[in-house]
Amino acid sequence: MNNSSDEPIAPCDEVGTLLDELDATVMRMARLMTARHGTADHGTELAPPHYMFLSALEENMPMRVSEIAERLGMKSPAVSMALQGLEEKGYITREHDADDRRVVQVALTDEGARCLKRTKDGRRKMMQLYTSALTLEDLRTFVRINTTLIETVTAQNE
Cis peptide leading into 77, omega within 30 of 0? Predict the structure, then answer.
């Protein structure tokens, strides 16, 4: 853990209260962000899961369905169903691997890349608005703490 003394936080009443508050604020923030990020009036064309799929592909193209599922912490059948909708919109292509027909390679199309950029630009504008009350140092700390929490949760779920 990364507290000021690098020792685990000892349970006490204050820690319990803070953990309850953290739990409530994380759930509320997730609900608020999910409600806003998927609406056209906020500059986002893609629903959050589709945004995550296309972002993963942009960074690591092409990818197998199983690789996308692993990266996003999802099951392959759920990813396959979501990818079908993206393929119908022309945002991705799915092709069977020439060496192993059971393997499907997924790639981002030019239209998918354009849609992703528009959505990313809209999301960044929203995040700038949402975080405008934070200093640069607060923002760095917030990102660092969130990254640490995500890594911890991911490790616990493996």
Answer: no
